[in-house]
Amino acid sequence: MSDTPFDQLDGLIWYDGKMVDWRDAKIHVLSHALHYGSCVFEGERVYGGKIFKLREHTERLRDSGKILGFDLPYTVEEIDQACIDCCEANGIVDGYVRPVAWRGSEMMGVSAQATKIHVAIAVWPWPSYFSPEARMRGIRLQTAKWRRPAPDTAPVHAKASGLYMICTMSKHRAEDEGFDDALMLDWEGRIAESTGSNIFIVMGDDKLHTPIPDCFLDGITRRSVIELAKQRQIEVIERRIMPEELETATEIFVTGTAAEVTPVGEIDGRKFTVGTITKTLMDDYDALVGNKRESAASAA
Predict the structure, then answer these.
(1) Are strands 18-21 and 139-147 parallel, antiparallel or unpaired?
(2) Range(s) of the chain covered by CATH 3.30.470.10
(3) C-alpha angle with apex 144: 141 to 145, nearest 5 degrees?
(4) Which pLDDT tens digit goes with each residue over 182-195?
(5) Fold of 132-299
(6) CATH topology of domain 6-124
(7) Which residues contact 232 (CB under 8 A, 6 or more apart)?
C-alpha cells in the first residue's frame, strides 16, 4: 500500500445509503463511538471480484450491533449489495472491504438511546497482511502483557472497536521489539489468539489443536480452515491450551480475513517449522478463496 493517509485516498465510500466522495466521509468529533467505543465493524476480502463469505460477515456485523444494543438501519441484503456496489464503484477486484456501524453525536454521555446509527463501507486494494517473506518463513510473536477479558466482563463475541485497544497496544510493543505480532492469552493465562487472528497448533500427535473461542471471536476464516482440515482427515481438537504446551508444538499458524493462513515461526524465542499441515492448509485456503498466489508447497 502507499504511504498516503487513509483520509486522503481517492474513491467513493458508501455512507448511510449513498456513495460519497472518499474525502467527505467524515464524522463529528463528538460522535458517541469516538468517546465510548459504540462501534462495530467487519473485515472482508474480495478475490477476483467476489467478496469471500459476504453474507456471514454481514450477519456478524448485525449481530455485533445487537450485542452493543443497537440495530442496523439496513437489512442484511441491503448491506451485502452495498458492499458489492462499493467494490464495483471503486474498481476493486482484489482487495479489502470494511463495513462499519456506529452511534452518532445526538447524545454525549454514557447513555446513548437517541443516537443515530450510521453505517459506512469502504474498500481499497490490500495485499497480504504480513510480508511475503514473513509469511513463508513464519511470523515472530511475542506474548502480550494484556489479556483477553473474561466472557462476563466484556462483549467478547462482538467485533467491537473498543475490544481492539489492547490489541493495538500489544502489537505496537511487539513491533517495537522486533516481532511481527503479539500472542494474546485469556483472563486465566491460557492461549487465546493473536491481536487480530485465531491460532492453530500442531502438536506431536499430528492433530490440529485450537483454543475454544469463549472470550474472543470464532473467526469466519477459523471456521473455514477447520472445515478444510476435516476434508483432509486432519483431526481438529478445540480445547484449553496452556502456554507451556508450546514446548511440544511442531507447527503453528494463525488465520483471519487479513492474515488468511499465515505460519508462525517463533514465539518468545521458541522456534517452529513451516510444516506439511500448515503448507497444505495454506494452499487449500488459497484455492478456496480463488487466490492466485504461488502455492506454499512450491515456494517453500
Answers:
(1) unpaired
(2) 6-124
(3) 160
(4) 999 999 999 999 99
(5) D-amino Acid Aminotransferase; Chain A, domain 2 (3.20.10)
(6) D-amino Acid Aminotransferase; Chain A, domain 1 (3.30.470)
(7) 280, 281, 284
**Active-site pick, 18, 26, 50, 159:** 159
245 C-beta neighbours (distance < 10 Å), count:
15
Q: Could you tell me the pLDDT band of residue 293, with boundaries at 50, 70 and 90?
A: low
DSSP string, 86-144: HHHHHT-SSEEEEEEEEE-SS--SS--TTPPEEEEEEEE----SS-HHHHHH-EEEEEE
Enumerate the CATH 3.20.10.10 domain ranges in the chain, comma separated: 132-299
159 is catalytic: yes
State the Cα torsion 183-186-187-190 to the nearest 10°: -100
pLDDT tens digit sequence for 226-266: 999 999 999 999 999 999 999 999 999 999 999 999 999 99
pTM: 0.93
Burial label, 213 (beta-carbon count in 10 A; 0-12, 13-18, 19+): middle
CB 141 within 8 A of CB 243: no
Q: How far apart are CA 282 and CA 266, in angstroms?
A: 18
Write the pLDDT tens digit of every residue in 121-149: 999 998 776 767 777 789 999 999 999 99
Minimal CA–CA distance to 226: which of 237, 216, 213? 237
Pair 251, 202: CB distance under 8 Å: yes
